[in-house]
Structures are given as C-alpha cells and as structure tokens.
Amino acid sequence: MGFTVSCTKEGDVGPRGEDGVHGVDGEDGTRIYTGSAAPTADIGDIGDFYFRTSNSDFYGPKSDAGWGTATNLRGATGATGPQGPQGPAGAAGSKILSGTAVPTTGTGAVGDFYFRTTTGDFYGPKTATSWGTPINLKGVKGEDGSRIYSGTTVPATSLGVVGDFYFRTTTSDFYGPKTASSWGTPTNLNGATGPQGPAGTPGSKIRSGASTPTTSIGAVGDYYIHTGTANLYGPKTASGWGSPVMNLRGPQGPEGPPGKDGEPGTANVIYSNWYVIDTYIQQGYGIAAPQLTQAIMDRGQILVYRRYNNGKVDYVEQLGGEVSGASVWYFVQPGNIFIYYHGTLVIDGYHAVRYVLIPGSVLASTNVDLRDFNQVKTMFHIPD
Hints:
Blueprint: E1 32-35, E2 49-52, E3 57-59, E4 71-72, E5 96-99, E6 113-116, E7 121-123, E8 135-136, E9 148-151, E10 165-168, E11 173-175, E12 187-188, E13 206-209, E14 223-226, E15 231-233, E16 246-247, E17 270-271, E18 275-277, E19 285-289, H1 294-299, E20 301-309, E21 314-318, E22 321-323, E23 326-333, E24 335-343, E25 351-358, H2 360-363, H3 373-379
Parallel strand pairs: 1-2, 5-6, 9-10, 13-14
Antiparallel strand pairs: 2-3, 3-4, 6-7, 7-8, 10-11, 11-12, 14-15, 15-16, 17-25, 18-25, 19-24, 20-21, 20-25, 22-23, 23-24
Protein name: Collagen-like protein
GO molecular function, one term: extracellular matrix structural constituent conferring tensile strength
C-alpha cells in the first residue's frame, strides 16, 4: 500500500468570515440639466453641466462664478444629400363638401363628408351605396339671456322680461333683476359726494402797461409786459419786478418782394365840360383852356371830341379830319383851343365839344385807343 501526500504553503479554504463595517458614503456626482433657455445662476450646483436644447449649447462645469461660456455641440452643416426617389402616390383624402340641399348619390366620393348649410345636417362618411343618415350639428336653442335697458325715467312694468336690468341715466339708479311683479327698488350707483378740497393756490397773472411796472402793481409770481418796448418782467418777487427777463419783439424781418405795378396814374389828366356850340363861326370857335401849357403841347396829348345828341341819336367822335360831311380841325396855343369848320356841317344846338389834356408822363404809361372816347373815359375816370 502506498500514500501520496501533498505538501503546499496554503491549507484548505476555511469558512467565510463576517461582513466588515459599512464604508463612508461617497460624494454626490455631477448632474446634467437641460432647458430651452440659457441657464440661470440658481440652477444646479458647482460641477454640474447644462445642455440648452434650442441651440445645442453645452455649459459647465459650473463654478463659483457661474456657468461660464457655453460650447456648442452642433457640428457644421453637412453637404446636401442627393434627392431621394419619389414615393408612391398617396391615397386620395376625404373631402368635406357643402350645399343647401340634401346631397345626391352623384355628389362626392366614398369617404367624403357633406354639410347642409340650411339645416346644419352633417352627412358621411359616404359609402358605396349612399350618404347615410345625417347628424345635426345645431345645438339646442339656449334660453334668452337677460338684458340691460336704459332710459331717463323710472322703468315701466311693461318694459323688459323677468331677469332683465334697467339703468336710469338721469339719476344713476340701477334696477333689477326684474321679477314677475315689478322692477323692485333700485340701487344708486353714484358714490357719496366727497369732502370739498382745499382752496387752490392763486395762479400768476400777466399784466401790461405802457410804462415800467411799479412795485405796487401785481402780486408775487405775476408777469408784466411793457407794451411800448415789448419787455417782459417777472415772475415778480417780494422785492419787486427786477429787470426784464426778455424782449418779446423779434428782429425785423427781411424786406418783402416788390409789389405788382399799380394801374397807370390819372391824377394829372385834365378835361373840360361839354361846350354847346349854338352858332356857326367858320373862322374858329375858341375854347379857353387855362391849364394847357407849352409842356403839354410839346410832350403830351391834346384831344378834342365832338358830341352830337338830338334826343334820338347820341354819339361822340374825335375831331381832326372829315366829320359828318365837313372838314373840322383845331389849333392850339397855351391857354386856348380854336376849332375850325369848313363845309356843310349844320350847327343847330345839338353839337358840343370838350377837350382832354394828357401830360407826357401819363401818356407813356397808357395803352388805350385815343380815338375811342369810351376807352379814354374809362381809363382816365372822366365823367359823362
């Protein structure tokens, strides 16, 4: 008989010992918060992280100073990929049709709906055989709500219905809700009159005068305008008016543009009355013209007109040339005008003459036909 003996350093495994003492808990780990806005200082603790979902910014770790600057986790935009193949056509969707009458079987397709606008009936979905029975979308009629009426007098019992209200505009009385018997006693919506407030501080006044203001004029706080100089004084103090604070008269404005030229002056035009010629003097009929000067003869215009008026015919013509079958002309000298006739002109008491003297300065500014007495009369304001 033989024996084999194993000799090693370790012996057989002994039984399991008892559990040791529980170790100390470790520190909390960091957290990752999320939100759509930037993190505020009250979110998280030191060491935490924050992901902003709206733009992919990643904050952290948070320090005593705050969240710091974020790192954006969104990569650069990639290149556009190739267009994919077109998908198969989708099934036709159902439609909601409408009309005023009941839908016919020829209206719409299977799966469609129909709304009848006149009744509120809703049909569908349509089947292969018909539209089916509709559902009415109108709700049950609700009860009438209460109304608020208004007027200037007390409401009559015939006004409104039970539950209504009434506001009397003249007194602010509010009635209601109305009952089956009456409007009841109103509630007045006017608040109580408040106490009278304190008297306001007198406002300042603007006074005026043609001289410098004296200390007896006005009160403290008033103003004064010196109408002669346009100086403004004020506000007046307890010691007086003081010096003017400003002059209200602005600087002289620029010269305006020249006005339009006036009408030609006629003040220096001289005219006589009508002289009736009752005798025929072939050698000349003299008319005194004391204002006829040599200057008018040299630079002005001397006009002589004949008027014929027999009660039926009335006309005026300028003398100088052939007049009514006779030659008529005139000769002038300072202070006098001589009229000469030659021919068959009959002097019968219906003839009259007058002269018009126009200085050269006035004549140069006129534009009138001197042969037309009506134009001359109008231009130079000559009475008939």
